[in-house]
Amino acid sequence: MKSEINKFGLWALAWPIFIEVFLQTLLGTVDTIMVSRISDDAVAVVGLAGQLLNALTTVFMTIAGGAGILIAQKIGAKKGEDARTIAIMGLTVSTAIGIGISILLIVQSHAIAGLLNLSEELLPLWDVYVSHIGGGMFLTAMIAAMSTAIRNTGNTTAPMYTGIAMNILHIALNYVLIFGAFGFPEWGLFGVTVSGNISKFLAALVLFYVFAYSFERKIQFRDLRIFDPKLFNEIIRIGWPLGVNMSGWVFSQLAIYSFLAMLGAKELAARTYMNTMESFCFMLGYALALATQIQVAHLYGASKTHEAYSGAFRALYIGLAVVTANALLLFLLGSHMLRMFTTDPAILAMGQSLLALNLILQPAKELNMAMNNALNAVGDTRYPMVIAILSMSIIATGCSYWFGTQAGWGLIGIYCCMIADELIRGILVLQRWRGKKYLLKAEKGANHKTGGEALQDTALPI
């Protein structure tokens, strides 16, 4: 029992996620620097394509995310066999969706560029990148489903090691295939797609091995045919609002990137560089928020509602302190970091003007994500979905278009709208969590089963 409690402690869950995200972000920065050696246009294409791929990723993350929450809840409720079945369905359905997305991106990359207002001079690079990296989206779906399932069993170290290895291999292959090192052909942006797909394929193989041994009974290949309609309905019940929420956010970001594309390639490149640097601010806050979701779901499944409630606030306070400190550090050092990516004076000026706004943006994002994840963990996914769709449609997207492109505020106006969206949603989900709707309902049900006896909570593991 003690080992299980430690396994689902906040720090035990968070530190491997943080290390994984930190090194992925660091290697992603190196990746961006490598692509910038091709051209600033290549960076702009990769930035816009990244938003598109993130948007499409949310389609299969609807299944993977819902399955992950349920896995932690079922393990907390001592229903290991149900957790195993849910994990299998999460993998098979997510992979099927990923295959469909891969086909779409291979066949329709040019048409999608038109929908995103991509300028003509960027089309050749876009077609090369999207059609090839998009063909590997089914691998991304497999990795996401298996990593999510493994993490929600309490094992956050295996995805960490796999992610680190995948990204190191990707960077090494980038060097070889972009620049033609060691006698290999000099493939430029096409080389980035080849190295990405090779590294994802090998990561998927490693994760499947770990996935197979993550439950009480080993998962065999023949088990991939398992489908339980009742449990799948539970996945959909939690997952579809989660997916709509994620899709709304990513599509709003995609719309914002299309507005930036309307402003020009320099604005698009500046936002891409800033997004890379901002990731360093947010990664520990993100790790704490994700760890909170896993821990709260496990405690909720075990009917430890008081611990779940207080644990979410503990993680929020820690996350806000860390994210604010990191944002301040970036404010002080950001101008020097920008020069690692580009020497274009216009891009440098735009990037430097956003550093002060980032001091407000990052804490607002942490508040929103931490409280959102706590609500998701107990199955309260519809309320965050509704307020997210309204806020992102009206404030993040609508106001960004008006103030950024029509009123002439440009990149500054778009950033202000992003801050307003995150802050408003964060305050609303905070109030929802304080209302304890799902926690009180679960506590009432648990008290009824135990004849009205009060629930006994042990000390919350840190």
From TrEMBL:
Keywords from the named record: Cell membrane, Membrane, Transmembrane, Transmembrane helix, Transport
According to its UniProt record, where is this protein mainly located?
membrane
Output a single Gene Ontology CC term carried by this record. plasma membrane
InterPro entries listed in its UniProt record = MATE_fam, MdtK-like, YsiQ
- Pfam families, alphabetized: MatE
Organism's domain of life? Answer: Bacteria
State the annotated membrane topology for this chain. Multi-pass membrane protein
Please tell me whether the keyword Chloroplast is annotated for this protein: no
Molecular-function GO term, any one: xenobiotic transmembrane transporter activity
Spans through the membrane: 12-30, 42-71, 83-108, 128-149, 161-184, 190-215, 280-300, 312-333, 383-403, 409-430
Q: Where in the cell is it found?
A: Cell membrane
**Which PANTHER family would you find in this protein's record?**
MULTIDRUG AND TOXIN EFFLUX PROTEIN MATE FAMILY (PTHR42925), NA+ DRIVEN MULTIDRUG EFFLUX PUMP (PTHR42925:SF2)
Q: What is this protein called?
A: Putative MATE family efflux protein
Origin species, per record, is Cohnella lupini
